[in-house]
Amino acid sequence: MKTDNNSLEIEKIVPSAEDFLPLLGTDYVEIYVGNAKQAAHFYQTAYGFQPLAYAGLETGMADRASYVLRQDRITIVLTSPLNSDGPINEHINKHGDGVKVVALWVDDAAKSWEETTSRGGESCLKPEVLSDKDGEIVRSGIHTYGETLHYFIERKNYNGIFLPGYQAWNPTYKPAPVGLKYVDHMVGNVGWNEMNKWCEFYAKVMGFAQLVSFDDKDISTEYTALMSKVMSNGNGRIKFPINEPAEGRKKSQIEEYIDFYNGAGVQHMALATDNIIETVTALQNRGVEFLRVPASYYETVLDRVGEIDEELEPLSELGILIDKDDEGYLLQIFTKPILDRPTMFFEIIQRKGAQSFGKGNFKALFEAIEREQELRGTL
Fold it and tell me: Per the CATH hierarchy, to which homologous superfamily does domain 8-168 belong?
């Protein structure tokens, strides 16, 4: 039985969202990669994901190999092509490794497709039934920004390991998990003046509501700026911030992403933990590199956010940022890009009541990103 893909902590109702598309959570995220076998080893070793399922030549999959990894309620699928041409190759050649599918867990995949396509969503996959001895899956899908897809996955009549066509993957190598729990939100980067277009898409086609917006006054430094709006579905389990570049003296991180990814795409996944100090300590011990803000950040941060449960010293040593809103506070930290192209990265987040996204940390964070851009010669 599949459990809810999100924490009760964030089941905040968004009253203005029209919930004609009830979403139960993030089912999985599929990333197209150049070498799925090696990428799987990286996600196991560095991030503590556990092997779950596999599809490839041995399972009758002729054109690709996919490794499925899971940690608590986060499921990642790593897919590589087996031939020298085809759409997966084209995607990797153009974008490098990147998120192709954000799959959403639903009760009725056919109805989800009908609701979204009738409102202007472009179909990428008509409802289809996949079956094996463990039951059946219904899936469908629509296009979204760039070449990113949303699949709707209905699995109430399926008891298999992942999807039909996959077999259990049970290697002896299983480094311990690091305490990652669920996908808190996923951020998309889009081109100049495209943010409102895609926010309107999520509102009209998928019934999302805008939670919050940030303009270039909120997200700017001496050199760069960006704009962002956060869209959420009706029950608050799916949150998609959408970023676009804003005018600045130098090239922003969004422009850098668009240049190297060759278009719009998923910039980062925010993965939630119940103990960010333990999680980040484990990740750093496994070689994961994080952005660092100046030590001076911690001299005044408690004046801004007030009392917190954690001691400040370990947060400072690890480089974890702190912010607050009217409902509590949050702790967050961002990895450096996990690829040679400066595109995709991860955020690790722990919410202590706060439902916001770290506005108070934006300036320090983006200055840290700019320092990395300067080292890459892309600022």
Answer: 2,3-Dihydroxybiphenyl 1,2-Dioxygenase, domain 1 (3.10.180.10)
